[in-house]
């Protein structure tokens, strides 16, 4: 029970991070009459454009985050990005604030070391072999143990930033430098993983709500340079793989707890399913659910965190998503080809409205549905190829 937004009785949700995923969370929250406050490191971020209020601040500055939260006193604090002052979230939770799904989940998934050690060492989930390194020398030693190719990632980064596949000893130094440039925090620490030759990779969206744990049909995806290009749902899987995937998802999400949606990333290999990582929030590859499910991953997240029931999740149609990425930095650009893209049947376009482009930055997504995922992927790809960014 709660009142209307902007009244004394309103239910207030503060979203920490205001990108394309947060924009959809805000829209879904507003459909349920929730007051929304968007926070991020830059102005006019996508979710800020649809929220009731906005704040621009350094997301890693704990004092600044605390000031905003103490001023607003939101009922729900909803992290939308990994790079947040999570120590402050832990302290605020201890003082009675409600962090989604929990401050510990936000803390552990903020850096790859926290979540990997929990998954592999505490829970014993199968993962790629891995080492951590704080210097180029330590990287050399780690790579010597794991062999080539290996995958190098800053412990704090997302969407593939600073991530590379290292194929030989000669490439180690440039991979190290690339990771140092791409990391989000001022921490020179990386994870080195053995390269997994998987048949496919999926995101298993797993929702924890008052109704218990539910799974969305698996989402297959293709990544390039560590970032997602296209996704589809449902991804065809063997019964054995589905059982293993759901078991891994259940174990990691039960450990992390709270209510909300989790994106459990898994590799499907001939030897079984491997855990890769988990987002305690909607997942970029899950944007496809806006075209495929009766309740999108964003609607599910909002329902779950407000404490409402989720009796069932229905897949209405096979579907696919395909991204539009920028190839340079600019604050003066236009996105064209929308008419052509929308002339593709069963297709929608979502322009995020980011104020600037950067090399590799995701600016829009195309969503298509069809009789099967292959047909949907073709439609989404065709429509995405119609879109173009014209720079001044
Ligand atoms: N050990 C590995 N072996 C083979 N491929 C890998 C490995 N680790 C990562 N990848 C590939 O790189 C992609 C991105 O990796 P990962 O999810 O760890 O990065 P990320 O920066 O957290 O991305 P995001 O934020 O989009 O989830 C994976 O989806 C997979 O395609
Ligand atoms: N893989 C995580 C992911 O997709 N996160 C999404 O990207 C935004 C950051 O985009 P930006 O780097 O373009 O500002 C985040 O705010 C979130 O919506
Ligand atoms: Mg990932």
TrEMBL record:
The EC number of this protein is 6.3.1.21
Q: What is the reaction catalyzed? A: N(1)-(5-phospho-beta-D-ribosyl)glycinamide + formate + ATP = N(2)-formyl-N(1)-(5-phospho-beta-D-ribosyl)glycinamide + ADP + phosphate + H(+)
Q: Where does ATP bind?
A: 112, 153, 158-163, 193-196, 201
Q: Which UniProt keywords apply?
A: ATP-binding, Ligase, Magnesium, Metal-binding, Nucleotide-binding, Purine biosynthesis, Transferase
HAMAP family documented for this protein: PurT (MF_01643)
What's the stated role of this polypeptide? Involved in the de novo purine biosynthesis. Catalyzes the transfer of formate to 5-phospho-ribosyl-glycinamide (GAR), producing 5-phospho-ribosyl-N-formylglycinamide (FGAR). Formate is provided by PurU via hydrolysis of 10-formyl-tetrahydrofolate.
Subunit description? Homodimer.
The name this protein carries in UniProt is Formate-dependent phosphoribosylglycinamide formyltransferase
């Amino acid at each position: 029970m709660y009142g209307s937004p902007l009244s004394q009785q309103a239910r207030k949700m503060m979203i920490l991070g205001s990108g394309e995923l947060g924009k959809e969370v805000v829209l879904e929250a507003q459909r349920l009459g929730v007051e929304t406050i968007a926070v991020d490191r830059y102005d006019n971020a996508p979710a800020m454009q649809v929220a009731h209020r906005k704040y621009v601040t350094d997301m890693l500055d704990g004092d600044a985050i605390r000031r905003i939260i103490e001023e607003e006193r939101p009922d729900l604090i909803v992290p939308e990005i990994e790079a947040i002052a999570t120590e402050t979230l832990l302290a605020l939770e201890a003082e009675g604030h409600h962090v989604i799904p929990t401050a510990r989940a936000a803390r552990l998934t903020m850096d790859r070391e926290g979540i990997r050690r929990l998954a592999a060492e505490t829970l014993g989930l199968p993962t790629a072999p891995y080492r951590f390194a704080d210097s180029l020398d330590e990287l050399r030693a780690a790579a010597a143990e794991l062999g080539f190719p290996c995958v190098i990632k800053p412990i704090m980064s997302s969407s593939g930033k600073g991530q590379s596949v290292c194929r030989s000893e000669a490439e180690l130094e440039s991979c190290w430098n690339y990771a140092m440039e791409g990391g989000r925090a001022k921490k020179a620490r990386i994870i080195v993983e053995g390269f997994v030759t998987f048949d496919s990779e999926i995101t298993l969206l797993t929702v924890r709500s008052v109704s218990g744990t539910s799974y969305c049909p698996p989402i297959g995806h293709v990544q390039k340079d560590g970032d997602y290009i296209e996704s589809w749902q449902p991804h065809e899987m063997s019964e054995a793989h589905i059982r293993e995937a759901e078991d891994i998802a259940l174990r990691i999400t039960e450990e992390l707890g709270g209510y909300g949606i989790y994106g459990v990333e898994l590799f499907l290999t001939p030897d079984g399913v491997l855990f890769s990582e988990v987002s305690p929030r909607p997942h970029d590859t899950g944007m496809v659910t806006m075209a495929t499910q009766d309740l999108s991953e964003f609607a599910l997240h909002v329902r779950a965190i407000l404490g409402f029931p989720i009796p069932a999740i229905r897949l209405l149609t096979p579907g696919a998503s395909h991204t539009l990425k920028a190839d340079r930095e600019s604050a003066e650009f236009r996105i064209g080809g929308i008419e052509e893209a929308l002339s593709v049947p069963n297709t929608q376009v979502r322009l995020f409205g980011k104020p600037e482009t950067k090399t590799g930055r995701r600016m829009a997504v195309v969503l298509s549905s069809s009789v099967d995922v292959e047909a949907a992927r073709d439609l989404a790809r065709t429509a995405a190829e119609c879109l173009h960014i014209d720079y001044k």
